[in-house]
Amino acid sequence: MLSRIIDLYLPDTCALCQILIDKRQPHLCCTHCWSDLPWLDHQCRHCGLALPEPDPRMRPLVCGHCLTQPLTKGIAIVPLAYNDDTQRLVHELKLQNNLRAAEVLSVALATRIQATYGMRPRPQYIVPTPLTWRRRVIRGYNQTARLAFSLADKLSIPVHSMLSRRHGPSQHGRNRRAREALPLNTFYTRRQLPADTRHIALLDDVVTTGSTMRVMAHTMQSAGVRRIDIWAPCRAALQ
Length: 239
Hints:
By secondary structure, this protein is α/β, with parallel strands linked by helices. It has helices at 2-9, 31-36, 64-68, 85-96, 99-117, 133-139, 143-155, 176-180, 211-222, and strands at residues 12-13, 20-21, 76-77, 80-81, 125-128, 163-165, 187-189, 199-203, 206-207, 227-231, 234-235. The N and C termini lie far apart (51 Å).
């Protein structure tokens, strides 16, 4: 009853187009904007890269690069292409600490996660991509941690900030070659992993070349994690 009164006297607006919506939606978007997001359907199993519509006889889908050097031996879940509306949402989250943008992205990702795993075992922990301590102080928050805790509420999977990042150049604005040169010692584990940790999900806001995820996965494998899945709301097209 209370929610109906709130909807009547304090109607919500779409997080993208700002029109009034009659009833508050979990994803905070109007029906049109939600359905019009750049959803990805055919993707590489290991890195989330968008692929052409497949031959139904060829399953699972794997891109050419992951045939020989998979980004992860687990699965990648990345529901949206990184362009237009999704780029705006990520920027609002990253640069303005916009929690409504975080909610749109986390609902999109949680919806795909639930559909992908079904009844199969899910990761034991969500591990967000860390910032360097300097960037964390300057920005005041970690946008990927914001996504992680929002997902944790929806999926009942705990967040474990077990990774730290050594100071180095930001990946933002760097070309593909520079991104892929990320040193293997960029990340390190600053907390002891629980003894039963066998399966985790690494989380970032955008997968661009996959270099950050690859180096994080290497660090976690060295720490003894057997299966590493990759989660992100958005996947950029390779240039």
